[in-house]
Amino acid sequence: MNELMIRRACLADAETLASFNERMAWETEHLTLDAERIRLGVRAALEDESKGFYLVAERGGQVVGQLMVTYEWSDWRNGAFWWIQSVYVYPDYRGQGIYSGLYRHLERLARQTPEVCGLRLYVEQDNNRACEVYQRLGMTITAYRLLEVDFVIQRPDPAAH
Predict the structure, then answer these.
(1) What are the residue ranges in the chain where pLDDT is below 70?
(2) Which domain CATH number covers 95?
(3) Which residues contact 141 (CB under 8 A, 6 or more apart)?
């Protein structure tokens, strides 16, 4: 089996990252997102690291997984949390340690970066499998709930069913 290589994504990865984001939105939330908006969003992050950065996992020269990192300043900690987002592993490569490799690489980077005070992510409420993976890697469920107002993606009202 080919060795797993983790690296920062570059502009040449933009189409793959956008495609993975589209697949992830459908698989996790049954959302069809605007493809052009996703492509522009991916390119914006790749061109401006102040927005975040992507890590990709390659096996045999093929990108098989990704995660994105964005930043949140914590005044309580005088440091930044790195938020893990846009996690996706191509189906044929799931269960082979791809995400674990991405996570461990990111954790090492974060621990080597003095202003980083921790890692965070959010997971869809019913995505128990992903939650179990995250917990096995050392993450814990917090007491916080995530609330939002989304001006772009309109979700169906669950109370309407």
Answers:
(1) 1, 155-161
(2) 3.40.630.30
(3) 131, 135
